[in-house]
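Technical annex B. To support the medicinal chemistry partners, we prepared a structural model of the target in complex with pyridoxal-5'-phosphate, based solely on the information shown next.
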Amino acid sequence: MKPEMAKNINHKRQMFTSVDGPNLKIPLLEPQFSGNESVYLQQCISSGYVSSIGPFVSRFETKLSNIMCSAGAVAVSSGTAALHVMLLAAGVKPNDLVIIPTYTFIGTANSIRQCFSVPWLVDILADDLTLDHDLLKKTLESETNLENGICIHSDSGRTVSAIMPVHTLGATPRMDLLADIAEEFHLSLIVDGAAALGTKFNDKPLSKTGASMTSLSFNGNKVITTGGGGAVISDNLDLLEFVRKISGTAKIEGSYNHDCVAFNYSMSNLHAAVGCAQLEVLPEFLKTKERIKRNYETGLKDVVSLTPVKHNTYCKSSHWISAFTLSTLDLANSLRSHLNNAFIEARLFWKPLHLQKPHQNAIKTKTDVSDDIWQRLMPLPSSTNLTEEKQDYIINVILDWAETSH
Ligand SMILES: Cc1ncc(COP(=O)(O)O)c(C=O)c1O
């Protein structure tokens, strides 16, 4: 490392210590609370409405469905809970197969297992890390049969009931092509859109891209946060009614009568209060995420070993996380340690599901791209409170690394 860069890093270390307290590293993602969060939380506490009943829950759902241009939205306790009830609403039954990309957060597959169903893991595209639609089509053509209108996996004899692509890092796969495949093979199309609040496909909001339902997550690291939470959005009010019912213990309004075994997944008024405040600043958050992506791409364009993760031409991403791939694993490891030494959080991101113990016995179709890419992927700090000054520092640290390592 050049002496002036080392001096600069030490200077930054002191600066971040004084500004951010004991957290020395610039984190990959952190929440930002600069709006009405505490005002709304105080209103919950003063009114006593802290649990699943309270005005903020319906206010949050209404605002969310307006933003997503969907007929409705049901707020729940996490993104994983949203996936679970969405799968059940899509009619996924025990032992069915549900197709998902093998490169995703583990919650995508866990929710399938929670339905006593089996994930069918399919590889991703190297450019944008989303489900490989061509591979999926060829696989369905060669490995399934339609029997009485039902898609059957030839080897296992199991029913294939749904395709559940993921909007990876906020970017959509080719939803138009996936919708065609779902129709051809008589499958439900539902989406894990955990990080895709604000994302569009073909200029359309996510409720209008061919999927019957989309889930969102409001975990602390997502585009907005409720502390912990999720939602299902849809244009189909019957599906949403079912989602609401099984998320809320299947209670018949105003009574202790419940007409099926269900879950206690409703979002609390406290969480929804935070969510209402966060949605008020969503447009600014999205602009900042776009600026972060643009600045990284401009600032690092001459580093030959770094390739930005792209999105397809029809997608307008939320840019949840800006990420690059390194040309070799050695360079990726070297950059990770260089960034960490400079107080910038850099770690391995998702490990593909077929390499994870709980999902090793899922059905798999080709995993080469995921195997090749996951350790070369470099997500960079992308919080909405990442100032231009901090981002310049990160870019300079990477440029310094490139000069010495190439
Ligand atoms: C792609 C994806 N799916 C599902 C989830 C699960 O969401 P949650 O953590 O809110 O349960 C996450 C986020 O953590 C995610 O990134």
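Notes passed to the chemistry partners:
DSSP finds 13 helices and 16 strands in the chain.
The CA atoms of residues 299 and 395 lie 6 Å apart.
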